[in-house]
Amino acid sequence: MIKLGYKLMSEEHGPQDLVRNLVRAEQAGFDLAAISDHFSPWVEEQGHAPFAWSVLGACAQATSRIGLMTAVTCPIMRYHPAIIAQAAATIALLSGDRFVLGLGAGERLNEHVVGEGWPGLGERHERFSEALDIIQGLLEGELTNYRGAYFTLDQARLYDRPAKKPLVAVAAGGPEAARLAGRKGDALVATEPKPELVEAFRSVGGEGPRFAEVSMCWAPTEDEARQTAHRLFRWSVTGWAVQAELPNTRGFEAATKHVTPEVVAQQVTCGPSAEVHLQSITKFIEAGYDHIILTQVGPQQAGFIEFFERELAPALRRR
Question: Luciferase-like domain location, by residue (predicted)?
């Protein structure tokens, strides 16, 4: 059965609004909610970047049913993986085992702020692999000491750890990362409807949930939605090779200077028509993803949630 999720875009909303939006999303019938974990917005127009883990603590107490998730946290620079394991264990307890820890290899935008630079792709993947070992070992209660090429643990132990280990979902943009998710993670996260990622995940024994983020912009008119998507989400068309490397919002402003609303609308479905959004969502379902996280771009969260409750969710469940 397909599970439907709601994206808490911490780059577009302050902490109080994120919690309020989540409460309404739970009431509307969403099965889960995923929050981005960023130190900076992608572009200045977004204007926010609250600390995701504080927001998650508030969300856990403000809701009772909806699943919670990071999508995704990078545990290789700004955070030591032991701290992420501790944070995940705490949110799992506060939420009554409703939490999934989504992890990825990160981007310069958020990780360079601690002054340790930004390593090349190969080193990032090596760091990420070590971080997965540490986080999984601590959450399972089986690891206390570790000495790798990049990370060390010295007599570490999670004193507040849930009896049921939270799932660790690994973000993947290509088959190699998807195979890593299958080997060292419990679930897969993707942002493109690529069946080859699901196939790679399963090829090495991956059997857990497959999460997919689907970007959309509901608004009363298609033109309004296109303008909103362009203003706040044009960074998304740059591709991962660019997104992982630019250091600040000025870089993304320069990289998207010539991006038009029409180009953004090719990637972000726009407007009031449920059928337009359903076509995009269906691509992910047909590719093998069973947890669909809807990212509503822009300030019209209340209108989108009402649209989801009234039209989109019933249509999806009929399909």
Answer: 11-291
Residue 301 is part of a domain; what is its CATH number?
A: 3.20.20.30
Catalytic, 13? Answer no
Q: Which domain holds residue 84?
A: 3-216+273-318
* 243 found inside a domain: no
Residue 213, beta-bridge partner list? 293
CA angle (220, 221, 226) in 5-degree steps:
115
| 319 pLDDT higher than 80 | no
E strands, 39-125, in order: 67-70, 99-103
Taking alpha carbons only, the member of 49, 70, 48 closest to residue 59 is 70
**Residue 313 token pair:** 């969710």
Residue 222 included in any domain? no
81 pLDDT higher than 80 = yes
Q: Is the pLDDT of residue 317 over 90?
A: no
Alpha carbon distance 129, 209 (integer Å) = 20
Please tell me which residue in 107, 111, 130, 213 is annotated as part of the active site: 107
At 117-167, the pLDDT tens digits run 999 999 999 999 999 999 999 999 999 999 999 999 999 999 999 999 999
Is 277 among the catalytic positions?
no
Mutual orientation of helices 195-203 and 175-184 as an angle, nearest 10°? 40
| Predicted pLDDT at 291 | 98
Q: Tell me the average pLDDT across 179-195.
A: 98
For residues 5 and 34, the answer to whether their CB atoms sit within 8 Å is yes
SS3 168: strand
Catalytic residue among 11, 26, 38, 213: 38
